[in-house]
Amino acid sequence: MSRQYFGTDGIRGRVGEMPITPDFMLKLGWAAGRVLVDRYDGPGLILIGKDTRISGYMFESALQAGLINAGVDVGLLGPMPTPGIAYLTRTFQAQAGIVISASHNSYYDNGIKFFSAQGTKLPDDIEQAIEAQLEKPMVTSERLGKARRITDAAGRYIEFCKGTMPWGFNLSGMHIVVDCAHGATYHIAPAVFSELGAKVIPFATEPNGTNINRSCGSTSPEALKERVLEVGADLGVAFDGDGDRLVFVDHKGEIVDGDELLYIIAAYQKEYGGGCSGVVGTLMSNFGFELGLQALGIPFARAKVGDRYVIETMRKNGWALGGESSGHIVCGNVTTTGDGIISALQILLAISTMDQTLHSAKQGMVKLPQTMVNVHRVKNIDLAQDKTIQAAVTETEAKLAGRGRVLLRPSGTEPVVRVMVEGEDRSQVKTLAQELATVVEDALS
């Protein structure tokens, strides 16, 4: 069954445009409440958390009203990182958790994500049931729910994050700049690191409703880089608006992305953590990352882009580590979903145990040059079945001689095909990407 509203990561769009409107959120709250009440045989509790964008207040109220109308009790968490909501959903034994956030997008966007009672993404069949319920007229339940604000939510999550570290671990002597993107981690991440003993310089921790992700955070780490160099910090860490992804900046001001962070965690686990059974990346993971893991003897698998698919592949393979180049990292031995703070702590544990700096720890893998060309798609064709395109791909791969990679990926959000080539020679990679893009453009025009 195809879904009209739910994508790979919930429902997202521009505020004021369907489905990101108050009336839709009211109906969505009711529909989700009815489905979950029926599925779990009776009234229960659903938690709602949000990031710091200004529209969150409006949608929190609408969802709350819809859920109460469906007979569900509501726990209001306030501003809370997405992974924190997943954790609290488990600990409160709630039927579900709802996140109001558009992640790394600007303030004028917003969205809704759901977590199951286990703190994982909502199963497809429940999302489909909610969409089916949305088509029915909204009626008031015989039993109305009640709402209460959970005042100790932030403190609970801070203690959980700290508790994932080994007994006695501390960050004494570590000087860290913490960029919270004026988002959901603003009151949590600095506390976690400072309570573990680090000297913390908070950055982008003054949300006003419209400055979330603006020239800061994991998608704009240049300001963090400047701050790390300015104060002479050991490193800096930047989260996105809802706190489920991160990037680091080392003491030299070099950005350390998700592929490099995954490599460091995997190398640590293999040597000091009892072994690393395998790592899941995505179609966009750098080929140098794959080669680096290969040199360590660690299996690697690629999933489709999106944390949902990364986690599915992790479960299928029985592996506990996976993530994306963007910095969305899942440490399955610690928690159920991508968590920026937990991932950052895993990195700090790794470099501390290995007695390395962040800069030296990433040297085991060498990112290969990558060129991506977006080709406008006038018509839809099956790229895998087009003989001209596939012949060009085969020829490009032959020129890379097994030390590079070719990827053709239709965008899910705009009418383009992304033509990506990786290899050891930057000039060759650029030339091959342009040549292949020309072939694809001819086929699509």
Strand numbers in spatial order across the main sheet: 1-5-4-2-3-6
First and last CA, distance: 31 Å
**Biggest sheet, in brief?**
6 strands, mixed
The shape, in one word, is globular
Q: Tell me the Rg in angstroms.
A: 22 Å
Label the CATH architecture of the largest domain. 3-Layer(aba) Sandwich
Q: Please, how many helices?
A: 14
Describe what you observe in this structure.
- A hairpin with a 5-residue loop joins β14 (321-323) and β15 (329-331).
- The protein folds into 4 domains: 11-151, Alpha-D-Glucose-1,6-Bisphosphate, subunit A, domain 3 (Alpha-D-Glucose-1,6-Bisphosphate, Chain A, domain 3); 156-255, Alpha-D-Glucose-1,6-Bisphosphate, subunit A, domain 3 (Alpha-D-Glucose-1,6-Bisphosphate, Chain A, domain 3), CATH 3.40.120.10; 256-364, Alpha-D-Glucose-1,6-Bisphosphate, subunit A, domain 3 (Alpha-D-Glucose-1,6-Bisphosphate, Chain A, domain 3); 370-444, Alpha-D-phosphohexomutase, C-terminal domain (TATA-Binding Protein).
- The chain has 14 helices and 18 strands.
- α8 (258-272) packs parallel to α9 (287-296) and α8 (258-272) crosses α11.
- It is an alpha/beta fold and 445 residues long.
Features:
4 domains; alpha/beta; Alpha-D-Glucose-1,6-Bisphosphate, Chain A, domain 3; 445 residues; 18 strands; 6-stranded mixed β-sheet
